[in-house]
């Protein structure tokens, strides 16, 4: 059930056990109350009989990613990637393999640090130090280091493609090594693979490889190991600023300065390398991909 995206809870297991007993034709049992269901003692013994089972807090996954992150889609990506990896001899050139993407900051991010208070209180409130303004940050890293912070801002749909082209010309080329070819891995958003961007990359010997739709949570290094730590440390620092000055609210004017301060602590070489490793991109390894995040289709 968990493999298909429908993990069962403790209460559901008890209901299923009762149903199995009843469907077996038994009208009474010495270990299970058929009216109330299995007891907590039964549950403990059930888990003892099945040490291969454990309990976790589930992670929600939207339907698009359930049906998009298939073994077939991931295999198709690695076939394309391996061909480029071999063609350009990238096995010892992590500095030539890049991943770029945007991530949003906004909607009242909250620090995950625990606070101290008197026992017995039901609710603890903290003044919000960030506004609800949505701010988009464009990040780019390679398999060995981070690229300096570049373009930021919430682009309108009409400007997003143009801004991507400007970023590629003015920022990516400026900080990327002169050695060629470069491999730039990104998602399939239409603004990422516009005609201007594609032609410019072709002229400058930059290979573009797009990730399959709805697989970035598995195959994108920035998603697997950089963005979450970055947002966590950003929210934590914003909260600490409030302890010094309660009237400080981090909006668009203050955002860049705070991000510049916290960015190096989250986008570390260690996190970046871990992201490329977990995605199986560098070193190239299909086996490194976390297949527990791949939901099997219900019809095999």
Can you describe what's shown?
This is Tigger transposable element-derived 6-like protein. Keywords: DNA-binding. It comes from Labeo rohita (Indian major carp). It holds the Pfam family DDE_1. This protein folds into two domains: 2-49, no CATH class; 67-293, Nucleotidyltransferase, domain 5. It has helices at residues 10-23, 40-49, 63-68, 71-87, 157-175, 195-203, 216-219, 221-225, 227-244, 252-266, 269-278; strands at 97-105, 135-142, 182-186, 206-210. The two termini are 14 Å apart. Helices cover 42% and strands 9% of the residues. The protein is flat. Helix 9 (227-244) crosses helix 10 (252-266). It has 300 residues and is an alpha/beta fold.
Please specify the SSE layout and strand pairing.
Elements: H1 10-23, H2 40-49, H3 63-68, H4 71-87, E1 97-105, E2 135-142, H5 157-175, E3 182-186, H6 195-203, E4 206-210, H7 216-219, H8 221-225, H9 227-244, H10 252-266, H11 269-278
Parallel strand pairs: 1-3, 3-4
Antiparallel strand pairs: 1-2
Strand content: 5-15%
Distance between the termini: 14 Å
CATH fold node name of the largest domain: Nucleotidyltransferase, domain 5
How many strands appear in the DSSP assignment?
Answer: 4
Average residue-wise pLDDT: 80
Any low-confidence stretches, pLDDT <50, length ≥5?
none
Protein name: Tigger transposable element-derived 6-like protein
Pfam families: DDE_1
GO cellular component, one term: nucleus
Organism: Labeo rohita (Indian major carp)
